[in-house]
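Lecture 7 notes: from sequence to structure.
We start with the chain below.
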Amino acid sequence: MKSIFVGILVLASSIAHADCTQLEAQVIAKVGNVIAEDASTCTVLLDYSGPYAQVNSSFACPLDVDDISNGVTLQKENGVCAKAGDAISGILYKSLKSDDSRIYLY
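Predicted structure tokens for the same chain:
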């Protein structure tokens, strides 16, 4: 009986992941270093050393924490990049429908 339940659970989760158009995770962190910059965006490494820092991947369409460690792309505000130590919070996402492999912050 338990094996049937586990099988149904695995099947249900694989069906849920099949409909994903983007992967997501909730984040609270600080900007560590700016590693790249262009006209409208900058890519930063995140620092999780703060007391409330966390990353919570979505259950339905989880964004892998290892992918996040390669950098997150932020929109510049008034042409200015985020600086080391700036706090960020929101939803990180990576599109599965485009060739763009960058991770962005809502």
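Points to note: The first helix runs from residue 2 to 18. The chain has two helices and six strands.
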